[in-house]
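If you are new to this repository, start here. Below is one unmodified record pulled from the training split, so you can see the exact layout before writing a loader.
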Amino acid sequence: MNAATNDNAGPKNLISIVTFNVIATQTVDGGVIPWVNIGRANEEILNLIDADEIVIPEHEITVAVDYPLAEPTSFHLFSSIGFSRKLVLIEIRERFLSFSASEQNQFDIYGLDLVSLDVYKTNLGKIELTLEIDN
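And here is the target side for that same chain:
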């Protein structure tokens, strides 16, 4: 990760893990799927459990992304009310759409499932998220 995009470098402590559970609409029993597909996030948000719950109360966060990018990067997000599952998911999907459109990155956004977010607090007091992604 380059220093220009990651001012949160340094030791960090895990403070929470945010999970994504979606009510399965394509199954007979309507079970729960413990991830959300990044490519279909707009549709899956409709069945996202606790979508509007504020899971990160801070107003500024940094999202660190390595997989499936050719080069790791990070981006900052801002919210006056904190971040709900829905808001974080929408922002991540938008970034992944732009990542997948670049010639440098070759991946299928519909093949990526977001399982959870690891929420860290750096020694500088900043909040950094890392993504747990399955393909």
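Two things worth knowing about this chain: The longest helix spans residues 85-101. The beta strands are 12-19, 22-23, 32-33, 36-37, 54-56, 60-65, 73-78, 83-84, 113-122, 127-134.
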